[in-house]
Amino acid sequence: MKVSVVKNILDANDRIALENRQRFDDNHVFAINLMSSPGAGKTTLLESMGKGLGDRFRVGVIEGDIQSSLDAERVAKAGLAAVQIETGGACHLDANMIQSCLGNFDLAALDLLVVENVGNLVCPAEFNTGEHAKVMLLSVTEGDDKPLKYPLMFRESKVLLISKVDLLPHVRCDVELIRKTAKGLNPDITIFEISTYTGQGLDEWHAWLAGQITGGEG
Ligand SMILES: Nc1nc2c(ncn2[C@@H]2O[C@H](COP(=O)(O)OP(=O)(O)O)[C@@H](O)[C@H]2O)c(=O)[nH]1
Ligand SMILES: [Mg+2]
What we know:
Radius of gyration: 17 Å
Bound molecules: guanosine-5'-diphosphate, magnesium ion
Number of strands: 7
Helix content: 40-55%
Shape: globular
Strand order of the largest sheet: 3-2-4-1-5-6-7
CATH class: Alpha Beta
Structural class: alpha/beta
């Protein structure tokens, strides 16, 4: 019984996700679902995208947090159109929550929409929000065993950003092992090593995004 209830919820979510996807496609918006555990650097990355992409593309952000509008305020300061969803306890965003706040954007005026999901390495990967790509961060401070412990998110993601590589001299983390394990789970995953503090890897990440926006499905 419990299993079928969960299945019904996921079916309903997928229906709404398809509607969201249609709206993104109709408006030529490339949409990504940005996921990681809390503190891996999602919002800081968005702030840097404001600088690195803001003059070329029009970027909108939906911020998902259990509580507070701090992240939306941060990215708005970086020049991106931002809307905050407070989930009030829910550990992930779903398609319905995204649909509810799409009306806050002029989608026709956007090139890229980024959904910053609630910090959590598990549940967000289970819910499709209608995005074209799931993108995840794993920071080097979290440990190189995480792909094996939380495989779903690595399987679902089109891109893995290994973040905070500036800290590598100070932590024991085998980046090659992360790459190998992630590729083992998902051979097609694209991997970038980034640091928003030093700027390492950001040009490559922005180039990937620009390629998706101009030549991709969005
Ligand atoms: N050393 C280092 N710290 C970072 C980097 N990116 C973000 N941080 C720090 O990590 C903490 C959490 O960042 P935040 O972007 O809020 O993470 P989020 O919870 O995933 O949105 C903050 O103190 C950031 O300054 C990075 O590239 N290198
Ligand atoms: Mg954040």
